[in-house]
Amino acid sequence: MYIGLDLGTSGLKGVLINEGQKALAEASAPLTVSRPHPGWSEQSPADWIAAAELVLDALAASHSLASVKGIGLSGQMHGATLLDAADEVLRPCILWNDTRSVNEAAALDADPMFRRVTGNIVFPGFTAPKLVWVHHHEPRLWERLARVLLPKDYLRLWLTGEHVAEMSDAAGTSWLDTGARDWSDDLLAATDLARHHMPRLVEGSAASGTLRAQLATRWGLSASVVVAGGGGDNAAAGVGVGVVRAGAAFVSLGTSGVLFAASDGYRPAADTAVHTFCHALPGSWHQMGVILAATDALNWYAHLVGENAAGLTAAMGPLQAPGRTLFLPYLGGERTPLNDAAIRGAFLGLEHATDRAAATRAVLEGVTFAIRDCRDALAATGTRIDKLIAVGGGAKSDYWLAAIATALDCPVQLPAAGDFGGAFGAARLAIMAATGAGAEIATLPPIARVIAPDRSLAAAFDTGHARYRAAQTAIRSLK
User: Which domains does the chain have, with CATH numbers?
Assistant: First the structure.
């Protein structure tokens, strides 16, 4: 058996699978985010450990874990977890959606070396500018800094006692030479850090260590359980849904939104604001467009009108042409393609006829058009999308998926019942690390149905997207 642990922003999930990749059990534990100041987003690493303990307790209560051979890790990317020489946490982790380091990110990005070496813009959410912010604003803490870990790699430290990261997560720090798959000493030096501050690197499918004896005893596991390198949340999800070869892609409608495409080589195009990262498998890369508010935008609107998201989308009926009302989902800035931490969202074109149903459609359409922007940015780099799988909580809405299929002119595949996301991908990586298996086990999940584009509405969605882009341009000066 194999365990996959996925450390998300709102919770930690664990799955237990057998040798045939059949899910035997799953468990989850909630997490909360602290926002002590505008633009800040933090979590306590101690809460991650507590959540992992709850999840492993639940898995052990449902099945004997004595035959578990490997554990894989998936996790939210970019978080800055700062440790002293005794591996004590120095401050709450600064999360991926924290924008306090916008000025520091701009200063690093102004140095051409960062884009040239990493293949990416230095976004405010990435790890390196967060460390520069700490250096500037928390100098006494900086003096005690001994190690920087990404969130899931702090879980690994607890599990194994080892300081290790893997390529897909490390690619989102702005310290990795993404083509060479190694830390860049020059980039580290540019942020007053050195290689000794970083964990050692392994591939996601490789072993990073073995489970500490104390934890093995607690949950009845063997002392030889291997902990795989794992992957950043999206790379692990790519392994989970079989998006590991060029032409395959998935759209994730979670708190944030992601259009993720596997690629057959390293082809960075930083100016497009597309992320070009290492995949969780050796010798492979991926590209993705990222928007900061997907279901987060729908949940925000649901709270505004005193409803829940499921209630708003439950009875929407067949897909309609976009209405006059526009929604721009920039509640906390935007990444692809804008790279703008200061831009904010808007409703435009409100009129007497704009009722709750029309506004709900506008929110779904706004996120859909933001994903189309990502598709266009990916296409500008030469990345193709032949097939698209939908994952995440928002994929429960047929209306939303029909809008995406139509706006992107691409059928959307919906997996059969089961969660094939980050936790499942992490468990697959555990199989690889424990057995030596490779990408051949990262197959597509069973597809329950396919949502085809509505050709009769294609022109209307093209027009709606053009209006969306015009509105986007208009509001960028209102900050």
Answer: 2-234 (3.30.420.40), 242-419+446-475 (3.30.420.40)
